[in-house]
Design a protein that fits this description.
about 100 residues; mainly alpha; about 0% strand; globular
Length: about 100
């Protein structure tokens, strides 16, 4: 049901040639899909985990790119939505473990 959208999220978190607004939209999508996590298929959860790993691999680039339009230090998002706290991920303040089976 959400495979195509999750694939697009994966592309967005690996492309820093586009506008930072596109990455911001990808983070908004990621928050929305998190709300639906329990209804995702195993295939969708696995793909989402792989895409999150891409974002984690690119965390510093994503932080620098999105910081052009978004102040991570002022994020009000819950810590479970770690993508809104990339500054803390990059600094090591937040440590993550990807899990596609929860």
């Amino acid at each position: 049901m959400y495979l195509k959208d999750i694939e697009e999220y994966g592309e967005d978190v690996n492309d820093f040639e586009t506008s930072p607004f596109e990455l911001h939209f990808a983070f908004i999508f990621r928050s929305e899909i998190q709300k639906k996590y329990t209804i995702l298929s195993l295939e969708e959860k696995e793909l989402l985990a792989r895409c999150d790993l891409i974002l984690l691999k690119n965390a510093k680039k994503a932080l620098n790119h999105l910081s052009k339009i978004y102040n991570f230090k002022e994020s009000k998002a819950p810590i479970e939505e770690w993508w809104w706290h990339l500054d803390k991920v990059v600094s090591g303040e937040i440590k993550l473990i990807a899990n596609a089976t929860e």
